[in-house]
Design brief:
By secondary structure, the protein is an alpha/beta fold. Strands 3-2-1-4-5-6-11-8 form an eight-stranded mixed β-sheet, sandwiched between helices. A two-stranded parallel sheet has the order 7-10. Helix 1 crosses helix 7 and helix 4 packs parallel to helix 6. It starts with 6 loop residues before the first strand and ends in a 25-residue tail after the last strand.
Amino acid sequence: MSHESYRVLVADASTPVGRALVNYLADTDYVVRALVTDRDREASARRAGAAEVCVADLTTGQGLDGAVSDVDAICCSVRDTGLSHVVGQLEAGVGIRNLVDAASSADRPYVVLHSKVGVGDSHSGMVLPVRLLKYRLIRALDATERYLRDAGVPHTILRTGRTTDREGTGSVATSEGENTVAGRIPRPDLAWVMVAALTTPEARNRTFEVAEVASPTHEGVAFEWRGPEAGLVARRSGYSIPS
């Protein structure tokens, strides 16, 4: 990258997790670019703290090349609700894959993907009735995770249970491919750990399950997430994002 600042794209910034990401990033030294799916959401993204806003359609790919231009990292959390679980294209499927394709064609920014506990080897973390209800979404996310890994783009995948609007604690339970961590997570904590993945070299190209420490199952692995508050803020501290 030739630019001096460190630019992070939040996609989709209109989701609850996306808004939490913009709010958190606005208090760091990162330059925040918010991807929204329609022009009506631009003002709210700027109020949340985005320095830049772009409008793009994840499911068609329209506008994604411009969205990923000159970004160093992408924090991605999409939301498919209602009938999208049953019919139509899922942003968690084709939408994220379009974003990965755009990133692969650009300067290969670091991608942090928010997925779900219940996908892949974490399937036992989601109870069977819910897994059946969300079967289509889980299948799409499973394919999307594999697509991201196969693309060769530097990445971290974070699987969670339900996200909540509770106050963040800055502390999460972490596991990797196990059923020891499942449960809810406050959106501020998820935003924190997604951004911390950028300054935690040990997280490169790995998939984790994260949850609030007070969750019913939280005997996680010993893993130290190092967020930008630790002083590792992109090139301004001489730190190099793993690539």
